[in-house]
Amino acid sequence: MALIGRDTELKELGELVDGPEDRSGVVIRGEAGIGKSALVAETAAAASVAGLRVLRTTGAEAERNLAYAGLHQLLYPVRAGVANLPEPQRDALRTALGLASGAEPSAYLVGLAALTLLAEEAVAKPLLLVAEDAHWLDRASADVLAFVARRIEAEPIVLVATLRDGFESPLLEAGLAPMVLDRLPADAAAEVLDAVAPRLAPPVRTRLLAEAAGLPLALTELPSAVGELDGLDPVLPLTERLERTFTARVAALPEVTRTALLVAALNETTSLTETLTATGTLLGVAADPAVLAPAVEARLIELSAGAVTFRHPLMRSALPASATPLDRRNAHLALVDALRDQPDRRAWHQAAACAGPDETVAAALVRTAERARFRGGAAAAISALEQAARLSPDTGDRTDRLLLAAELAVESGRRETAERLVHAANPADARRRATAGRLLSEFEDGVREDPARVAELARTAAAVAADGQHDAALRILWSAAMRCFWTEPGPEARQQLLDVADRLPVPGADPRIVAVTAYVAPFERGEAVLGHLRDLVSRTGADPEVDRYLGSAALQVGAFDLAARFSAAAAPGLRAQGRLGLLPRALAVQAWSRVRLGDLAGAVPAAAEAVRFARETGQPFMAGFATAVQAEIAALRGDHKQAKTLADEAERAGLAAGARPVLATVQLTRGLTNLSEGRFEDAFADLRRLLDPADPAYQPALRAYCVPELTEAAVRAGQTDALRDVVAALEALGAPAPALRIGLRYARAVLDPSDERFAEALDADLTGWPAERGRVHLAFGEWLRRQRRVVESRTHLRTARKTFDALGMAAWADRARRELRSAGESSPNRGPDARDKLTPHELSIAQLAAEGLTNREIGQRLYLSHRTVGTHLHRIFPKLGVSSRADLAGMLKTLEG
User: Fold this and answer.
1) Is the pTM of this model over 0.85?
2) Which of 53, 167, 246, 882 is the most buried (most CB within 10 A)?
């Protein structure tokens, strides 16, 4: 009956069920009582008739603090399939669902496991996933469902979720189609009311239609309160009037039934056994299902298969709201007694029964938080710790528990929660203040903060180190060092950080010290950093997080070959551990470094994936950095329109907060674009901005690593005097940075060309730096041709053209072709590279397939289902004109050779 007037919505949902390959699903939004559940029930019934398997989960307000409770409910019918998952996924999912003990699983690894399990189940029969009252799902389950929804591509799976107005959920950002339910129009509302209560007197019917105002739940429930209608306060919101209606129905029931209903409303599960056990404790006698029969007759609840279910959430919420505090407390204590073998649920009911601080209950909640964290339920752990803090008699314990909750919020990317918890902690002593300061600085690496904050962090680190807390001091130093990448605090603040690092009783070869030093003093300490990096590169693979920040350190000191190696080693481990917050950082460094080396084929998928995961994990500036790298790739490929579009997008991400690496890469892209389009003065102006300390694009390390491009622009714009000043200033740095040394050799050869200068540039160790070698050959060939040594020039120009063709650097390859033609040698135009026909996502899949990975293994690497991988490969093969993995591997190897 509540579906009267919902023809359009039913048709849309029916189309979704008929063709689940077309869309991942829908989020149905609307106020309480609007008919969301009725619409979903009708859709589920139609799906079952159509041959789909329906898996359900329903959020419950009392279960929001039980990690993965909603996911457990959804996957319970298909739990047998967990045993067939790949080992890391199997272990993660079993641990998350409390089916086994194991290491703390990442939410992303749990998400991948759920996706794989559902994809496997969908092979036998298409799936309809239903998530009702998603606003009350525990956060861990909601995150997993959002993860799955974003990755439903080729699988015959569709997700339908319901969400109450005024609530947020991760599912809103998961790419699901929105469906907003409005109240029923007058004719449909009248039809519903007449179907429910066909013999109402006309005045009563008119009054009910006015009171209900088109809300389906009101139309079906208010007729039962016709006797009390005159007593309803017309000022009350309709939902409160409905709650009063339900409360009035409860008041007419026997006392034992009211007691049982209150227990059921406060219990976070639908277990009839638990409800009756706790009710028996309250009544002092055993309770059986008969005590609830009057509530069933009053249409408040339904009993089935050992479960007691309220017909609507408003019915459930009305009961505790109308009960006395003493009655609620006694009901919670009765549930505590009934849940002796379930410590987590028991602790929450104990907390609800507390009238004031209680360390015993607080300690139980801390243990609950530890278990939730162990299962990967950060949100549940945060809630438990916050409640434990509220019940802590000791001020120090209260502060520590709030700070631990804040740390978990930081790790899970919940900025507002972390800030709220830190401010609530209000630490009084230096150690706790230092922890609080570090936690608040973790988000966005301090990009939005005053650069003066770096000096403050240096002082904090010094104080913490003086207290003997060296690991904590190192964490603070690392946080401050990252700020030196994104912002510019000035030489004095940098020196303060170095002074603290130097005084720590930690070996200089410790990867943490190496990374901090590289960020803070990339030139002053560059030689020592490079030495340590070369020693450490043989140990990659032991700890992906260490590899990740050593890759960043190598980028700072211009060792792009090492940066690419470290970050490439970090990525598989971060994927395996499901640490998708760190993964885009490693991928962005890998992409930036590979572009500078000329490895565009390797940079394209890394940059695309970095953008995707940075956005998904809420890292706007890292997404901007990776987008700027994509812009640079487009410029080097000669796709100037795309380069400009991406550069503008990246600039918008970085400009408001002054994210210097983003803006520096944007200016580099614009310089490259203007160079290849012949606007040399514009190119020189773009690139020179990187060298101006007053410019927001100035980044102390990155400014020194675009010398070849700056040289090209300056010479062609007639700015050689300005270039000589730049070269002299950079030479004065005395830095051993490989990228700077290579760039300076190139600049000296172009400024004062001679056979000896170019030979010196080519004699440099350019192993792994093909783009730089190609650039020197091109400049040497151009100079030889101008010296009328045409035959000699052709050799170098031909080498440059072949190099740039192989690298996909179309703008530079075209320039080499023009020079070759001027030297009297025709050069075939380069056709589209087979890789150019693929999207970055497809290229990533193709490269992994060419390496021999199976679809399942590729899916684990890229957080996709193996069916999605298979679908992409079916598209990739005809694009490249191949029919097998062996052909694919051969083609890509030829292109790279």
Assistant:
1) no
2) 246
